[in-house]
Amino acid sequence: MTQDEALELARDTVARAQRAGAGDVEATLSVTRRFHAEARDTTISKLEGSTGRSLHVRIFNGGRRVTLSTSDLSPESLDRVLRDAVAQSEFVERDPFAELPDACGRFQGDLDLYDRALAERDDARKVDDALALERLVRAADARIVNSSGSQYADAVTTVALANSRGFADAYLSTRASRSSGPVAEDAGVKRTAHYGTAARHERELESNEVVAGLAARRAVEMFGARKPATMRVPVIFERDIAASVLADLFAAVSASNVAVGNSFLAEAIGERIGSDLVTIVDDGTLAGRLGSSPFDGEGVPTRRTPVFERGVLRTFLYDTYYARKLGARTTGNSTGGGIGANTFYLEPGTHSLEELIASTPRGVFVLDTIGFATEHATGTYSRGARGFMIENGELTYPIDEFTVAGHFGEMLAAVDAIGNDLRFDGSVVSPSFRVGEMTISGN
Amino acid sequence: MLDLEYYDRILARALRFGGDYADVFCERRRAYAFRLQDGTIHEGTTVLTQGVGIRVVVGESAGYAYSDDLSLDALLRAAESASLIARGAPNGAQRQIDLTTMNVPPLYDQERTDHAAAARYVALLERADSAARAYDTRIVAVNAHVTDELQDVWIATSDGRFVHDHRPMIAFGVQAVATAQRERASGYVGDGGRTSIAYFDAHAPDELARDAARIAVTNVEARPAPAGEMEMVVGAGGGGVLLHEAVGHGLESDFNRRGTSLYSGRVGERVASELVTIYDDGNLPEERGSITVDDEGVPGQHKVLVENGVLRGYMQDTLNARLMGTTSTGSGRRQSFRFLPQPRMCNTYMPNGTATVEEIIASTKRGLYAKSFSGGQVEISKGDFVFMVAEGYLIENGKITTPIKNATIVGNGPDVMTKVTAVGNDSRLARRHYTCGKGGQHVPVGVGMPTVKIGSITVGGTQE
């Protein structure tokens, strides 16, 4: 389906919904062509190629909001489900804030979201790519004896959005990713690891060599890990784990959580929360980045929004609904049903990760966490973790089976060093950073 | 949904280059949902997704393609795409497939074809909202949701099976938020299963809502969790998440066939305290994890995973079973037609032991009573896990004392299973709608357990 055809279908859906009795309507059609190859040992273990379509409709009947998703785009089926959705709206309470956005449009500027070479890449080369990654990771260390697979995947997506206020626009984007999951064995103990990366452009994607090297290192470096003592020490979060901390923080600045009292930051606008080093931005306009798009999930132009500036909380992130409800302006963070990140990132510092470690007399370097308990309502952070002990500025031995815990507010206030290793391989990203003191629970 | 002759033609096209096996998974899923927020019905949702997934298996390789365009042309194109995995493989002979319709006795209602009147869902949410608010003046917010879903699947396989399953699923949940001084805490309770809105005539939403409010109020008064090693008593029902994460995933056959699980090649070995028996059961009527047939058309089964501490078997889908020289245990499940099946759990639980809850608590000198968990995660090869305690208390000198909040427990699955020192006589399935994620796919599951005591566990908190 071409962009024009997708746009026409979105417009047609809006017209059908209005004929079915809907007041205001927004229709978003996404069409994605996906390819995925997984290699394991010397063979291709999975080969998938499909095109999927999904139509998402929001109806606002005088403040009564219903949403509808369908993959059946036949006119008869569409008319039937649109009638059902209009009928359902009568059971929803009138909400004065539930309306289409006032000002739709697109970010003016080339966002460079589409890589033609990637979209036209030959499948056979992609298959070879996955096989090569699997070969490299298995050859990277003698202790790597197995793998849960190495993957290459890409997708070409068309998004078309039309609404009953006359907005209609579309964009095309690409995404490629590769990842590897080696299994290492030493003295009868198995360790799995995983490393993956993604980009909009093939040229930006980390090479097979880099991915294999990092995946292999993660698999072998934890051998001989001990359980650390319970203690309070400085903690350095490696960039991928730092990004997961930021993802938790995102939930606390998301207006949908703020509005229902599910955020420890609900009353904190204008307050100093983080240290001077902490500047966190949401930006939908970074050229060529995975989190960028010309408009958000309800057709509002994307923008750059500083959320924390030198530690001070400046704003929450809004879609149209929660902006109206909380008396603010949308920041272009609608996903078409909720609030999501564009590119939400911590501004990098000037030190390398090695310098961060070298300037820590005693502490813990966290390389991986498991668990997803985040009480963004209370601000409590607690995860199972593994990583390294730092003594006299050096990584001394691996540690695991411990938890790292603290309060988000105190953690941000205690950020005393930020790395220069920021990398844009997702929509929530972060350089490595150090928190002055946290609780490690072990023996 | 498709003409029967389509299945024959799709399978024939999928096997044009040969292959060991092929199947067609046709699905239609309709969901109808309401959400309550700030005391009013905030949003309604209708979902209709349908499509066909086509798989070709050669050795340990799988080719896959799906289509949400149900025209024969589009489906044959998808079959061709899936067939590419078999190019150049042995077993190139084309074969004739005669599909025979299987009839499997259903575990849930096959007759209901649509959702109920909207007013019934609305009334359910409104009752929950007022019950939670009435529980305590410290309850400041209530969120509730209900989703009623009907999934139809039609599965045709190259070994001649054709089967249809009609799967209802209702899920209802209430979150209550309490505040006191500057503290905030929430409690969440859910219920449902492969049944309909009528289930809630007998299981009053008011009680669930009051329970959510009770947990929120308990947690708002709770002290921060202590950090360090201590005994742990795991509560009946929801404690089953521990079995699911700490043992269940490690017994899924894909990890074992590939040798990446720590349980690989260990059937017949002692892997847990002899007090530990674990079942996975797809056959419990109307339970959330139950399936008349799995997503490969194999009837659900009762599986003995661990018996008196000895590992008895894995959960198998067809691909891994064939490669391991055994048969499927009806564990092949997928999120939707857009995904390949994987071996997955259904309802995982531990049957009754002999101890009473009172004995177990009384025998604990200093420990954590983890009544329920809000989630967990496991690392498969070594078995390290993490759980978040949703409702927890300190046990001091054989008595339940202070509520504690934000406790995380970390440990190692196989290690913890050897440290089970008492199993209660109060086994039950958790009344909550659990969803299990694996490889980017989410499927509904059930978990259950009696009250169980574990000799020592690491609790991660902020208080020493």
Question: Your description of this structure?
Answer:
The complex is a heterodimer of chains A (443) and B (464). Chain A is α+β, with helices and mostly antiparallel strands and 443 residues long. Chain A has 2 domains: 3-220, PmbA/TldD fold, CATH 3.30.2290.10; 224-443, no CATH class. In chain A, 24% of the residues lie in helices and 37% in strands. Chain A contains 10 helices and 19 strands. Chain A has helices at 3-19, 75-89, 116-119, 123-139, 208-220, 239-253, 255-259, 320-326, 353-358, 408-413; strands at residues 24-40, 43-61, 64-70, 144-163, 168-186, 189-192, 195-199, 231-237, 280-283, 304-309, 312-313, 343-346, 362-370, 374-375, 380-391, 394-407, 415-418, 428-429, 433-441. In chain A, the strands form 3 sheets. In chain A, strands 1, 2, 3, 4, 5, 6 and 7 form a 7-stranded antiparallel β-sheet that branches. In chain A, strands 8-13-15-16-19 form a 5-stranded mixed beta barrel. A 5-stranded mixed β-sheet of chain A has the order 11-10-9-12-18, covered by helices on one side. In chain A, strand 14 (374-375) and strand 15 (380-391) form a beta hairpin. Chain A is globular, with a radius of gyration of 24 Å. In chain A, 56% of the residues are buried. With 464 residues, chain B is of the alpha+beta class. Chain B has a domain at 228-460. Chain B is 20% helix and 41% strand. Chain B contains 10 helices and 24 strands. In chain B, strand 2 (40-58) and strand 3 (61-67) form a beta hairpin. In chain B, helix 1 packs parallel to helix 2 (72-83) and helix 3 (118-135) packs parallel to helix 5 (205-220).
